[in-house]
Queue: 2 jobs
Job 1
Amino acid sequence: MTPDHRAGRTLSDAARAEIRRLTGLYEHRQSALLPALFVAQREAGYLSPAVMEEVAGLLDLPVSEVTSVASFYSLLYLEPVGRHVIQVCTNLACLINGCRAVVNGLQERLGVAPGGTTTDGRFTLRTVECLAACDEAPSVIVDEDRWPRVAAGDIEKILERYP
Amino acid sequence: MVQPFTAPESIVLRWARAWGMQELDHYRRAGGYEAARRVATGAITPDQVIESVTASGLRGKGGAGFPTGQKLKFIPRQAPVKYVVVNGDEGEPCTFKDRTLIEGCPHLLIEGILIAALTIGARKAYVYLRKEFYHGRRVLDAALEQARAAGFVGSGVFGTPSDVEIVVHSGAGAYIAGEETALLESLEGRRAMPRLRPPFPAQAGLYGKPTLLNNVETLCHLPVILTLGPETYKAYGPPALFSVSGAVSRPGVYEAPLGVPLRSLIFDYAGGLRPGRTFKAAFPGGSSSMLLTDEHLDVPMDYDSLRLVGSMLGSASVIVLDDTCDMVEIIARTVEFYREESCGKCTPCREGTIWITQVLERILHGRGRPDDLPLLESIARGMTGTCFCPLGESVPPSLGASLKHFRHEYERHIARAAGAPPEVHTVRGH
Amino acid sequence: MATDPSLGAVTLTIDGRTVTVPRGTTVYQAARSAGIDIPIFCYHDRMPPLGACRMCLVRVEKMPKLQTSCTLVATEGMVVDTRGPEVTAGQEAILEFLLINHPLDCPICDKGGECPLQDQTFRWGPGRSRFIEPKRDFAKPVSLGPVLALDRERCILCWRCVRFGEIIAGDDALKGFERGFTSEVGTPFALPVESKFIGNTIAICPVGALTSRTYRFRARPWDNQPVASTCTHCGLGCAVWLDVRGGEIQRVRAREDRAVNDVWLCDLGFFGHNYVASRDRLTTPLVRRNGRLESTTWEEALDLVASRIRESRARGSGRVAFLGGRRLSNEDAFFAARLFRDVVDTPHLDHRIDATPSGASLQVAWGLRASIEEIGRGDVFVLLGCDPTEEYPVLWLRLKSALDRGAVLMTLHAKRLEIHRHARWEQVVRYDRLAAAVEDLAAAVERAGDPGSAAAAIAAGQRVHVFVGRAALDGPESHALLRAAARIVSAARGTLHVMRGKGNDLGAARFGVVPGAGGWAAPEILRQAATGALDVLWVAGCDPATAVTDRSAWDAARRGTKFLVVSDAFLSATAQAADVVLPALVLPEKDGTVTNLEGRTVSLRAATPGPGQARSDREIFGLVAAKLGVLFTYGTSDELLADMRAHAGDIRVGEVLPVPPVRLDGLTGSGDGSAVIATDGLLVVAADHLFTQGTMTGRCQGVTALAGPPHCLVHPDDAVRLGLTDRAPVELTTTHGRLVLQARVSDATPAGQVTVPRGYESAPVQRLLQWPHVAAPVEVRLLGLAPAGGAP
């Protein structure tokens, strides 16, 4: 495999510049790996092999290390996801406060099981662990917005906000 | 007539509860950044900071409860490069005090970081925030910008020759990154797997350099201790932030004196259970602490008292279960959490969590066997004291407690006809 | 782990026995030193403790819970229990956890019989399984490249293989993916593993998760007869076990030798043995009759050879020459020297057949000037035109461990090295600018360099080792380059290593296969042969047709030679053109010794008898000497050794006899001309690779596959200009020749340079090159269309 393979370049110059800037924040350039992967993921949608190769080249890390690290973390997506990612907390406080109805409601509305992406590529539904918003249980995060005390009846008006 | 409960005055949480504390001006008008300025200018020396913090009795609020003053003292003074690392990977189920502090008063954290960094002579601090704190990150970034523009953060803080750069670093979705050495691995761009200790972070932490690693809340106490003085601070309990959630009327973060009875937290601060419900059990310090039943409702919520009853204060997160909760489901969901979040490094945690959840799911699906209960106890025994880090060790106590106090609920599931439809479904599954 | 004797000792009690160990010793090691066996999986004594598998649990008095003995440092007065009921219960629990998802398919598993998991289960494990859930389910074994198979169901996630790549080899070849109970080891996207050392991971895998695709299902360990010998590929002389069954080497394993390879090997060592049992081996002598090589008897073949030599001597001395050495043992080389110098009376012997006529290689003695162990204690390493993982892989492992202890590395080469991430300073220049770059570096070191620069680190180094490789020694202006390297060494009070010599080249040099007084070096032998100056040329255990760096020089030599004798194991390109071919044994079939790159004498033990009528070179030389009237008779091997010592110095098996010092007197010229090759266009350059498809390696299926098809590296910028995509077929044309290869688009080669690996019998890069030039302007043309989806 050849990192920094010009023909296979997928990231924009801006993203590459941002990744280079990130390396300056740390004593070791590998520290910039997680932030760099998020820069890449934001731009490419998910971390395809080509994207991870490119990040590896930019940080001068082995591709094996980049993919190994990426696969460890649940918010780095190695498979394509929808335009919007819905994270429904299913941990204890949310479980006790009715997240099951929210998950069921979303499943029904979107026609996908947790982990799945709608056929129109609009939403990916994920059930996740505690979001540290137990005072707002059941808690749902869509993209980067946290929705408090979500009930099944709120689903439609929440989804409307994410075309 | 019962007197309505009035919570005592808060000295830490009030910063996050006051309006507009995300703004530097508001924070300063309320006296913010004065403690840090005095440390920077030498009006308070590092030794005095350590003395005050030690005298305050402050202990780490992340879960381990290590005395903060001692931690400051452990950092070798003469080391040329040192770091402050802030653990903002708040992921312990049903803990949300750090998020509350960051979103409510980011400057309190920044000031705490400045005090810590100036005390140990670190020029750089990293705040490791869990990725899911999208809002918290925005708030903290904006506050840092303000503090940097005011000359409080960056080179020459408060007009002194001291530099303190603060970098916010987001995680990527891994509970184990909250374990301090796993956090360092993650901050160094690797898989968040706990490191062997010794060496401890104070000797060789980030990039092998001496590192002061503190939880968000812990650092937020520092400006308060220096402003009020350790004696006044201590007179408040000393204060602790409790996250109370689950089957209570008013879930939320509450500041209460350390040692407040569990009963008071649940029934006074959090408004008790919802109408018509009765108390069943509670985790006193996050899902990693051993489940307590009503016989322990009067236990004082402090380190030693909870240890005496076999549990722990942990992150001071009370998760309340009421009579509608199916204990097998609760435990299954809890162990499933550890299964999902196990890093996979050590055998007992990686294999024990999957095995236990497999057995529990079988029981929940009406395919349990009488042998399963001793089997679960035996698996739990095999995990006890054998895991690499506290994550795996979190499983046996509550599983054991539930098998002891709520065995009948397990037996009821097992007694159902083989193949009967499940009474409850686990939500997460895999 | 590392213990410091100056720190003193501690005494502790283990299972009631008093044990005294150096301070810093772990409880596990302390127990081991007392003969107490504690089960382990993740711990490997060449890597720092990890504490992951939790199998080595012990009970320590005054400690609240069981402790992992591999991570726990022994302290004074510690009381340890490794056998009590609590410990046993803990170990049983761990073993049960490990087994719940293990398939227990021992009867069909290669590891069976040498499997730590099997052994521990037998000793410590529970009798029956309480696990009734479905086991973790993975697709059956996946191939991670041509030599490695991974069976994830068997993997117990001890992380040894992953850490080997991170800590020992530094190639990060295998990694952990996912987490928790879905963790698995592997490569990114299950692509073929990229490593020169992967065989070691198979060796240290404590279960049958990593297995060798060339050994799978071939033998049971207890059926193998291990033979202690030495690997003779690269010349480092790694100690090996040759595991023999049914008269065939089934596999090669590392044999511990702390002075040389420690416990490791490279993949050429692991997988480069199948040629021995190849069906292509020569089994009878061949003579050319009516233009065709035909089988004959030894008697007839030797008579013919002897008579041709006699005829030549009748015409005068010095009309016979000998080339070879790399694949000869010390004893073979000694016999060759006696035969040709003393009996045939010719000074024209040489082993340096791959040297260029005016390069610096011919001007200095080859080899290391410090022991491998001493190099491992170095603090600054400078690699000049030297690529350790392609040339001397196991030496890299020493350098890597020194780097981990704080040493620093500077590399200067005409390509990006695989190990570049480990270099503090890396300089890649086009081949024709190497000498100038070394001169610049020398000048900077003499000025003590700018702060933070490589030159400053070299100048300030305490134990500086400078390695000059083949690309530098045979490259443009190599004389100037070597003089500059010597200046660096002198300014840094360091040591200069001449990284040249493969197989037993150093033994050949030591035992006399070098030009005598008035004798010709190998390139001159070829030049003289081309002019008709030779009656007989004998080539032994080497293949000039593919090894001489200008193919036409060999062809002309062959044409000009009246009688060509080749002794070899295969009908190589050289042998195909011979008048007499004598079937020879290969080194794994010989008893004797070889000389490694340090000048260390290491021993060979015959693993197999050899095919048909094949004979050792030593025997062949002796028989010819006898035909010529001289008997080489040695009553015992000690007598032979005494005679070899009388000629070559006090050699002792296992010990280093230093190679001659580097003398620069011969460096009068500038070396091969660079002016001619200076070009604004593309330059073609040949490079040494570990995995090749040569006479021997082409007959090792693992190595052949690892080498991949004949290819060339093209820089991405050049590829864009040429309209090339990765894996496209291209034609390389120089004024001298043409070659069709697969293009690999890679920034490992500098812009403006096309790098072609040497060692492909079917696509010899030396067709493109003409002495005295060692590189040539080249035209690259895309052939047809690249195969669809040809990447990655």
Note: Chain B touches chain A through 58 residues (CB under 8 Å).
Job 2
Amino acid sequence: MTRWAIVADLNRCVGCQTCTSACKHANATAPGIQWRKVLDIEAGEFPDVTRAFVPVGCMHCEEPPCLDVCPTTATGKRDDGIVTIDYDLCIGCAYCAVACPYQARARVDVPNKAFAGKQMRHETVMEHPDRRSVAQKCTFCIDKIDDGLANGLTPGVDPDATPACVNSCIAGALHFGDMDDSGSVVSRLLAEHKHFRMHEDLGTGPAIHYLWEHGTNRGEPPVSTPMVADPVGMGGVLPQLQKNWDWRAAANFIFGGAGTGLFLFAAIATFFTDPVWQVAFAAMALVATGLFFVWLEIGRPFRFANVYLHAKRSWMTREAMAALPFFAFGAASLVSASAIVWAAAAASGLAFLFCQAKILQAAKGIPAWRQDEIVPLIISTGLTEGLGLFAAFAVISGANNSLLHIVSVALMAFLAVRYIVWRKYRGALGKKGAPTGTFRVLDTGMVKFSAANQIFTAAFVAAGLMTPSLLAVGGLLAVLTGWSFKYTLIARAAFNQGYEINRMPARGAGSSSPGIKPGWMVS
Amino acid sequence: MDKSDNSGPDQVSTYCYQCVAGPDLLKVDIKDGVATQVRPNPSAAEIHPAGGKVCVKAYGLIQKTYNPNRVLTPMKRTNPKKGRDEDPGFVAISWDEALDTIAGKLNKVRSDGLNDESGFPRVAASFGGGGTPTSYMGTFPAFLAAWGPVDMSFGSGQGVKCYHSEHLYGELWHRAFIVSPDTPLAELIISFGTNTEASSGVCGIKRHADARDRGIKRIQVEPHLSVTGACSAQWVPIRPKTDAAFMFAMLHVVLHEADRARLDIPFLKERTSSPYLIGPNGFYLRQKSTAKPLIWDDKTNKAVPFDTPGAEPALEGEFTVSGIEIGADEARWEHSDIVCRPAFTHLSNHVRDFTPDWASQVCDVPADTIRSVANQYLDHAHIGETIDIEGMTLPFRPVAISLGKTVNNGWGGYECCWARTLLACLVGALEVPGGTLGTTVRLNRPADNRWSSVKQGPDGFMDYPMNPTAKGEWNANPRTRHAHQTLIPLAANSPWSQALGPTHLAWMMQQQGFENLPKPTTPDVWFVYRTNPAISFWDTKAVSDVMAKFPFTVCFAYTRDETNHMADILLPECTDLEGLQLIRIGGSKYIEQFWDHQGFALRNPASKPLGEARDFTWISTELARRTGILEGYNAAINRGAAGVGLKGENYDFSLDEETAHGVEEVWDAVCRAASAEVSDGAESQGLDYYREHGFRVRKFSRQRWYLYPEMVAQDLRFELPYQERLYRIGQELGARLHEHGITWWDRQLKEYEPMPNWHDLPGLWERALSEHFQIEINDFPFWLITARSMQYAWGGNAGIQMIHEVASNIAGHGGIIMNPAAADKLGLSEGDVVEVSSPVGKTQGAIVLRQGIRPDTLLMIGQFAHWSTPYAKDLGAPSMNELTPMILELTDATGSGADLVRVAVNRVGGNA
């Protein structure tokens, strides 16, 4: 077998960005897009300070999170380990971009233009229209590798078969080769040096290895990287707020959760009262609205049907699949009082909601999302919103008191559950650690799930036992707090993984020192 | 250009010489006639010291070629008023009109006389640093040579942005215009601010990366943790401009705390002036009959001339001797039975008080650190060991000290260069494998050959082409506006000397004039190419104001910029990837270009010229033709002004001198001569060969990296530690200046000490600023320094988007780097926009907090503050050039000053 990998010798790297530039040339990437770049990382406090340069890019992981999440199978992984993108299949949903903990993926929607005015000649000649509005990232210069191999060349040895960044490296810091070949330069270097991989704890198995000291890894204790909550001067290294999914994506979680929740309670209500088709319709309209906003966000909206191509692993595909019976049975429920129809629609909706929760959990690039506790949180939030909406509907439609009492009690219970699940989520996140910015957003400002907010909301709901209109207010408050939370979670607290360096490298005869995980904290 | 034109090659070989650390070799991909991609040149991997790689700047060449902001037609100014606030009103004109206008001015100059009433050339020219423009200006040097006197004293940064003291003292002591460690063999490098990883090019980067891989220890001593500090084993954050004190303390440790056996005694005795006896007046004690310096011979127990065969020189002690001293202006003292000591003893006494504890207070570095560095230096010196270099046995001394720009420049430069070179001598590590080497010569001749430049001089030392100071020989009437021959003996008078004189004096003279020097005059015609002194010099406002007064300025213009804003004519020349030229490569070149080969490389056009851009050779030929100097111009090309003489022992490719030749015709002849030179006359391939192969080289012996063998062959000594010659010259210079009523250079005359003392350099800056500008220095509490950026240094790439994009990955570009503790005291946070002000100016930028900088120091990387250059003007990046004063008080005896000033910081806005 073959497993292509890059070995970056941090003792040799000088941060010159020649590889960054060579990559931009070889791949004609857009201004601001760098498939390969070199980070400038500082650790320690004056006067005991060290500084290192760390080349990053697509890690061509053994277990690529981007591969699992891709709903279209556009992202693939070859037998030689190279993670690929089929630009013709990709819909530009950017799910892969938020799933990548190495910030390696980007989407560009406009032609390359470094200067204002017209494109420069080389920009026109090197334009890649197939890459427009879809995911893009480092390919390991796959065409060179394949052409080279076809011509009997050895990648990593022959320049014509080797990635441009490696060819260009003036410090001899970047090496390319086959990890499965014990005689390759990368295998030899890993045998002779201590090395680490970035974010190893995420289990992605990245194919970029960093050498930090001469010697062997044998006997080295596991390295834990010190978090530094607010380091200075490291703008390009710190976790950044993800920009791939904005309010449109948030709307899908907001309306999808509330809509499917609402349908569930409308279906349950059929056991107590006549089916109310208007509620079912409203529920479906919410879900449809959420999906419409997502459709607006994807880069290639008219390829949206490709979303169904990866049921095997992608929760986004599964979400889209769950939407089909939800809308089918939901549509039937408008004209049928059959409990089976209503139950089928509700169950599909619940599946849809579950998929949404799993979508976030699978987004490994966003620490605030990838927690296991996100699943019950998203589900309980959606259900609470659904019940809150149902309560409002019930009050407005003049439902009987016994139903309203049940709804009040249930809503209080859901509020309690939502709060408990939130605290559990927050506790787990705080214990594991997350970007400082995530905590700052979750813990300050308009705090959505604070105990005070929940008690305030619950008070209205409880008052609804006496005064039904207050139940409606309480229900809507439950909805608003939930929606506000989800908007915050998706669009404001979603700081990406950022970068870290496990060990500051030994330079020449110097010694190595502890690394740094900048912009991270436990809280 | 027709985009569908794909009839040419799909890849060409060329070179990149944007910075002084080049040239390097590359390939350019071409698609549909458009240059699309820069690549390394793998076919040069075996012959190029960095394996045929090029640095990040070369990758900017594609954008540089197709940049929509280029000037693509000749233009003329329509607004006669000049100034930053005046719109030049440039309008497009034809090449004929442009060239005829220039020729008209030049022809008038010739009829008026080539020199003006003050004796200065009426034609001036400024080119970018390090001579790199020569590799892009085709045959323009032939035009200049044919023209006659041209004043090149309006510097573009020379003296303020170069390694100025090293250039002069380095050439004097070991033919080292630039000094470099012998990195491939060194074990320990102590770097005082040398920003190797930013400014030593691909060869330096590769050599140092290889060295780190094998475990070299590099100790970086500098106020901030540069990219070089990052790549070093240890960072020592020293107070700015106190490096000399650190090195003096190292000398103290070596001479007063270490055993003498740890020094290279034979080297000191045989290859330095250490045994020379010093007379009571500070000059060598000489044998009366021969005037040769005396040494004490331990074997015969008497004083003998230094070159006495079989003598066993004494390095230390007191000896009763007789002889003469020869001082300034032939002053002569005769001594009988006086007590004299060798220079080495004088040295030992000189550094007795420079203890690590003393230096610790000056440098703000623990004494133990200084002592440790000095002892490590001795530990790694391998005294007595030898190494085989291509069959020659040479001393092996793998320790070196390198000096950065601000360490090297201005006051303190002499002290640092002296201490560094002396530390090398003490362990025999000068010009030997592993040690401290020179790279190339520019003041001595021949310029392409260090060994051949070693010639017998006085007193057993190498000769040096000092500008004369003796009565009757001193040049009282300078021929350049900075008066380098008058003021700076060490600047010599080679073609490079003008650029090395005190170039800011030319600008200052225009501002204020200098008493008892000729009246300042503006040049009638000023040519400017690949330089932007309105940005790259000090006190850029003052420089801009001066150039606005020049009556006729011709700028070869890539884009509009701050200097050509004052131009009368703009000429669009072919850029790097459009022009045709052959240059020399290989041998040993600055900065760390030590090759095992030498030869030639072709700049083969990868793209047809855009717009009306023309090849520089065509422009030169046209100017020569239109000014009636075509014959002299062709003759200059035939002599070698285009890089290689066209006529040799076994070949003659000379051009007909009366005909205007085409660009390819000229370079074909040059290529043929180059082929003949490389093959000793056996081959004569022309342009087509170089187009196909890109370059052609032959072997260059690694032995020639080292001067030591030639010194031994000629039995010469390095002129250290005692500077008797400079001491005498300084006195003579003072006498000549005073005879002509010039007293404003007196401060500089004090630098001519036989062994430099510590002069409280930070205090010198503080006093100079306080007194000159009448300010309270404590109102300016921070030291402001600068650092080179690999992405931006040289090459004029401030207007290239890709360079800006990738440079932004490195912290601090475009901002003001500050220590967080210092920022905290001022209530400043990351991103705050502040105004940084010095006594002469102010600049604005955003704060970038970094732990790797001293709390008393601020750093601004690179040179920005553009206000005209497209794209660059929108970056909002600060520049220390606006803040650095151009004053005599901060000008040293070599005519240079340092990038150093005291500043205040004030918030002007919220978070950027």
Note: The first helix of chain B runs from residue 61 to 66.
